[in-house]
Write a structure and sequence with these properties.
It is found in: Cell inner membrane. Belongs to the AcsB/BcsB family. Binds the cellulose synthase activator, bis-(3'-5') cyclic diguanylic acid (c-di-GMP). This protein is an alpha+beta fold. Helix content is 21%, strand content 29%. It has five domains: 219 residues, Galactose-binding domain-like (Jelly Rolls); 135 residues, Chitobiase, domain 2; 143 residues, Jelly Rolls, CATH 2.60.120.260; 214 residues, no CATH class; 32 residues. Strands 1, 2, 3, 4, 5, 7, 10, 12 and 13 form a nine-stranded antiparallel beta sheet that branches. A seven-stranded mixed beta sheet has the order 35-34-36-41-40-42-43, sandwiched between helices. A hairpin with a 2-residue loop joins strand 27 and strand 28. The longest helix has 31 residues. The protein is flat.
Length: 847
């Protein structure tokens, strides 16, 4: 015993010494080096740049580049574990950050521990990568539509930033602007930043900047970025050392400001010339910006080339969806963009060399005007005849999924059966009840987690001419599931449409009986409760473009300070089998209504393929006229979800050939002369340096309660009417709507301007949601970037209603007359009943 005891104590002592030495050796990798510079302002951090010299083999695609980078990163993490910490300088080191209070004052410079040390040459840009580009994402563009709130029960916020297929990230910097609680224990509190699940930085929360607006700039490792990326900001915060700390406590908060940005430096990747990649790179689902694709048309291109281009532009518009699309027309291939060219014999754009055309041909090639290695592509549609060119365009939008190689020759195209009214894929069917699963791309969009999760959004387009004469509400049969509270509390579900509250439903707790009943089916057991609610949506809340918002709030179940709270995070979901029903509504509306046109393209989009629409253009259109045609048809594709396969395109001189169609007029050149011919039927006429506009009192021009509306057919209508003519002192553009002078019940919408150059002002306004909201009536004037909607002309009605419903509609335009008719009807009924009762009394008395 005298021998064994000293041996054990010696072994224990040696073990303690070894452990302490290991901790001392590992100390720099655990505790970051922090240097405070009094009075120094934070400087901007340059994005991550290549480190040691050297090159790596050029990847053939972003996917291969990402996989190669991930293999390199795996080896570099091992080397980083034994490497000394990086010096406290930024220099583009991934993980380095600068923290500044309020943008000025002391700057804290920190080098994040565990920085990935890349082997020599790993960070160098691949030799085959093309021109550098830079993208700056705002907080809104990354999916947070306001301040991102981090709380004790929901401490993590998520930001999404995707990378185009033809780009690879070479540098990244997150500029995080935030404010945090001044009531924390700062030694235990910090922010953790992750990219695709990898920790890239920790930001200490210090007392000196608590409650102030703080800016931290973090260099991110570009090798962590793939096509789809998620950046997480997690708050780890404590306000007490007590083991009964409440995660719902109000002092646990951090707000990430909308000024937060992510800057990505990318390099172009030269994709192979393959039609199998379509619609990329002309449309990339990873790119959330406005889709801008130039169309290259020869200076002498005729209607067939423009018609084929319009089919393609409507297809791209349908793909662009909420992003919006713009299609400028150029005469030569642009050097800085992917473009689409259309060619016929004798109508080949300058600078494009094509082999012999052997039929309807679709070819993708390197853009001849772009720099070598830029990755810019040119998609060429060609044919020997106008019919072949249109066949190539139809094949592209219908059959691109079956294409491969750099070029194909189209054999045949079948456009399919004629469309039916109101069957656009982007519109809610109005002939049957619709499941919510049909309105979302993925049922996962109907699920949320957290105690105060973000709202569930369901977008819904309906025809603009729905008329609620037989019913005043839209039935919504909603079924939902949630983590049920154990007792009654403030857990609720708010149901809204277009940000207007419709129903606030309290969430019921789980009773013991119902919980035991679910045990009989183990696969469905758990803490989730199910409920059903029948909600009536007021019809007047529904427009042509709508959004349901389902907002869950699951209240805390903590009863006292030291009681336990739920370990499992709360979950909630709207059942995909919930039903909304528009089948009881008729199609009837008053036109012109530019609000319907600007939001859904009505009445042109009534037929999804635009088979009853004709676009009227000048006999000699210039590039601005052609851009207006392509961009407007891109909007049509966005609204319907289909390419405009059957739209007609005619010059103004041949207007009589489409007299039975709805007309979209591009009003410059000879088309402006056509509008001048119809001048007395137009609310506004822009002609030869002057404007002629119908005038009326706008207050009485909009519907009122007592009198009729401005469209009364009564010649005694006291609404002042007239026309004024003024000389133009500057540029002007307008959207004008009126009934077609060629056919009763058909509509005309004209883009009118002082010159074709001002057509772009209307196109710009159509892409601004704030300006679209101000378009209404039959005239929307665009001047100096502002939009004013007016009602100056007569209205007409389109649609299908029974005769008695039509009578009711027209009588309802006179509320005072309706009130008088109601009084008279009541008196008639009263006198009739009085007379009938008198007769009955006389019979009983024998009189």
């Amino acid at each position: 015993m005298r021998v064994s005891v000293p041996v054990r104590l010696g072994a224990l002592t040696a073990g303690l010494l070894l452990a302490s030495s290991l901790l001392a050796a590992d100390q720099p990798a655990v505790k970051p080096a922090v240097r405070t510079t009094p009075g120094a302002a934070a400087s901007a951090t340059a994005p991550a740049t290549p480190g040691a010299p050297g090159t790596t083999p050029a990847p053939t695609s972003p996917v291969s580049a990402a996989s190669a980078a991930s293999r390199t990163a795996a080896a570099s993490r091992t080397a980083a574990a034994s490497s000394p910490p990086a010096a406290a300088s930024l220099g583009g080191v991934p993980g380095a950050l600068v923290t500044t209070a309020g943008g000025t004052g002391p700057a804290v410079v920190q080098t994040a521990p565990g920085t990935i040390a890349a082997p020599p040459g790993a960070n160098a840009a691949p030799a085959a990568l093309g021109q550098p580009r830079q993208h700056i994402f705002t907080l809104r563009q990354m999916g947070s539509y306001g301040t991102m709130e981090l709380r004790g029960i929901d401490p993590t916020g998520y930001l999404n930033a995707d990378v185009r297929t033809d780009e690879v990230v070479t540098g990244a910097k997150l500029r995080l602007v935030y404010t945090y609680s001044p009531s924390l224990i700062y030694a235990l509190s910090h922010l953790k930043v992750l990219v695709n699940g990898e920790v890239v930085a920790t930001i200490p929360l210090v007392k000196e900047t608590a409650g102030q607006l703080v800016t931290s700039e973090i260099n991110l490792d570009p090798r962590l970025f793939t096509d789809f990326n998620r950046i997480s900001v997690q708050m780890i915060a404590h306000y007490t050392l007590d083991h009964c700390e409440d995660p719902h406590h109000s002092t646990l908060w951090t707000d990430v400001a909308p000024e937060t940005t992510l800057t990505l430096d990318t390099a172009a990747v030269d994709l192979p010339n393959s039609l199998a990649l379509l619609p990329a790179p002309f449309f990339d689902q990873h790119d959330y910006r406005l889709v801008r694709v130039p169309f290259v048309l020869a200076a002498n291109a005729g209607l067939p080339a423009l018609h084929a281009a319009s089919v393609v532009s409507s297809w791209l518009g349908a793909l662009a969806s909420y992003r919006g699309a713009r299609f400028p027309v150029v005469r030569t291939a642009p050097a800085d963009a992917n473009a689409i060219a259309l060619a016929l014999p004798g109508q080949v754009p300058e600078g494009i060399a094509l082999p012999e055309i052997k039929g309807p041909t679709i070819t993708v090639m390197a853009n001849p005007a772009a720099a070598p290695g830029s990755g810019r592509k040119l998609l060429v549609l060609a044919g020997r005849t106008p019919e072949e060119l249109e066949k190539a365009a139809d094949a592209l939008v219908l059959g691109q999924a079956g294409m491969a190689g750099s070029s194909v020759v189209v054999q045949s195209v079948d456009l399919g059966p004629a469309r039916k009214p109101y069957d656009a894929p982007n519109w809610v069917p109005t002939d049957r009840p619709v499941l919510l699963r049909e309105l979302v791309s993925d049922p996962q969009q109907l699920q949320v987690s957290g105690y105060n999760p973000p709202a569930i959004h369901v977008n819904m387009r309906v025809p603009a001419d729905l008329y609620a004469w037989a019913r005043s509400n839209v039935p919504l049969d909603i079924r939902y599931r949630y983590t049920a509270p154990s007792s009654w509390n403030d857990s609720i579900l708010n149901v809204s449409i277009n940000d207007q509250l419709v129903r606030s439903q309290r969430l019921k707790p789980v009773t013991r009986a119902s919980d035991e009943a679910r045990i009989a089916v183990p696969v469905l057991s758990g803490t989730d409760a199910r409920a059903t609610s029948n909600i009536e949506i007021p019809a007047f809340r529904v427009g042509s473009n709508n959004q349901f918002q389902f907002q869950f709030h699951i209240d805390s179940q903590k009863a006292s300070l030291c009681s336990s709270s739920a370990a499992d995070i709360a979950r909630a979901a709207i059942d995909p089998d919930s039903v909304v029903d528009f089948s009881g509504f008729a199609h009837y509306t008053a036109l012109p209504n530019l609000a319907d046109f600007a939001n859904s393209g009505y009445p042109f989009t009534r037929m999804a393929d635009l088979s009853e629409t004709a676009v009227v253009i000048p006999d000699a259109p210039d590039a601005q006229d052609q851009e207006a045609v392509l961009t407007m048809l891109g909007h049509m594709g966005q609204w319907t979800g289909l390419p405009s396969l059957r739209v007609k395109l005619v010059p103004a001189s041949q207007i009589d050939s489409v007299s039975g169609d709805d007309l979209l007029v591009i009003g410059s050149g000879s088309a402006a002369q056509l509008l001048a011919k119809w001048g007395k039927d137009l609310p506004l006429l822009i002609e030869r340096g002057k404007t002629e506009v119908a005038t009326r009192d706008q207050k009485s021009g909009w519907p009122g309660w007592l009198g009729g509306t401005e469209d009364d057919d009564n010649d005694d209508n006291d609404t002042p009417k007239g026309r004024s003519i003024v000389s133009l002192g500057g540029p002007m553009a307008a959207l004008v709507g009126f009934e077609s002078p060629l056919a009763s019940g058909r509509s005309v919408v004209a883009l009118a301007s002082t010159s074709s150059a001002q057509l772009g002002d209307v196109l710009d306004a159509m892409q601004d949601s704030g300006k679209v909201a101000r378009m209404r009536g039959d005239l929307s004037v665009v001047r100096q970037g502002d939009v004013e909607g007016l009602r100056v002309g007569e209205r007409y009605f389109v649609g299908d209603l029974p005769w008695y419903a039509r009578l009711w509609v027209h009588i309802s335009r006179y509320p005072s007359l309706m009130a008088l008719a109601g009084i008279l009807a009541g008196l008639i009924v009263a006198f009739t009943v009085f007379w009938a009762l008198g007769r009955m009394a006389s019979r009983r008395t024998g009189d």
